[in-house]
Design a protein that fits this description.
Elements: H1 2-20, H2 27-32, H3 54-73, E1 86-91, H4 97-108, E2 112-117, H5 129-137, E3 142-146, H6 150-159, E4 164-168, H7 174-193, E5 213-217, H8 222-230, E6 237-241, H9 250-263, E7 267-270, H10 273-277, E8 282-285, H11 292-301, H12 309-315, E9 322-325, H13 336-339, H14 346-366
Helix pairs in contact: 3-7, 3-14, 4-14, 5-6, 7-14, 8-9
Length: 370
Amino acid sequence: MASLIKSLSKSTSSSLLSRIVTPSISHSTMSSSNSFSTQTSKPQHFLSTADLTKDQLYNLLTRSIELKVEAKYNVSTPTRPLTGKTLAVMFSKRSTRTRVATESAMAYLGGHAMFLGAQDIQLGVNESLLDTSRVVSSMVDGIMARVGGHDEIVTLAKESSVPVINALSDKYHPTQILADLVTLHEYRHHKTLNPTEYTAHQQHPSETLPGLKVAWVGDANNILQELMVALPKVGIHLSAACPKGYECQQDVLDIAKAEAKKEGTQLIFTTSPEEAIKDADVIVTDTCMGQEEEKAKRLAEFAGYQVTMDLAKRGGAKPDWIFMHCLPRKPEEVDDEVFYSDRSLVFPEAENRKWTILAVLDSLLVKKSL
C-alpha cells in the first residue's frame, strides 16, 4: 500500500508539473517570434521644432492652451493618465522655469518627475552617454534632458528606448519657443477682442500669428536658432541683430531660409539693432553677458544692444510693440523701464513654460505622438 501511494504521488506530481511548468512552445514558434528580443521600436522624441511640421507645431500650441484652460480656468478634475509613470529629469545645468514647469506638469498628469542633477548621476562623466541613456531609459517612461552640446541630446535620443525631450542644448531650446508662441497668441487674441475673461482657446493660433514681425537683439544663441526654425513655419517674419562675429550655425540658417521661402516670410540678419527693430511688433532678447570672465569683453561687443524705450523709438518699432525675454535677465540686456513696463510679457511667457511642457508630455507619454 505504501508503495502504491508513493507511486501515485510521484505520478500526480509529475503530471501537475507537466501541466503548470512546461510551456507548449514549438521550435518553429521560437524561431519566428520576437517576443524574447531586447530590441524595441524607436520612440518619438522632441529635440527641436525644426523636426515638426507646421500642423504638428500648431497642434502643440492648441493643446497647450486647452490644458491651461482645463487646469487653470475650468479647474476640472484631472484624469491622471500617467499614474505610476516616471519621467527622468536629467539636468546638467541649473534651471528655475524649466524644472518647476516640468515637475508640476508631470504631477498634474499623475506621474513622478525624478530629478537627476549633475551631482546625482554620471551624465557623460564616468559613464558614457550611450550607457547612461540605455540604463536610465530601461527604468523610466520618458527623459527630459538639459545638456551642454546638442550632440549630447542627440546621443541620448538615439540610444533611449523612451521619448526624450530637449530641455535645452547649446543649439536649440524648443520648449521655450513653444511658450513664446502661446504667449504671442494669447496677447494678440485678447488685444483684438478685449474679452473680460480668458478666451484664447476659442481662436486658432493660425489666425493670430501670421504676419507678425519679431525682432531679435542679442547673441546668436540657442534661443535665436530655435526662433529661426519655428517662426517661419507659422508665418512670422524675423529680423535678427547680432554683433559682428556672432553668427548662427549654417545648418540652422539653411533650415530657416527654406521654411521662410516655403511660407513667404522675411528673414533678415544685421549687426544693427535699429535696423532689426524697424516696424517690429515684438522685440526679443536673451542673456548675452556670458560668464563673469567674459563680461568685460561682451559689454564692449554688445554696446548699443540693450533694449530700451529709446532704442525702440530710434529703430522705429511699431507704436504698440511688446517685449519678451526667456529669463533670467540682466540689466545690460534690457533696462528696468522696459522689463517692468506694460509692454513686457516676460512673466506670462514664463508661466506658459508649464502649459507647453505639459502639452509635450501629454503628446509623447500619453498619446504617444506629437
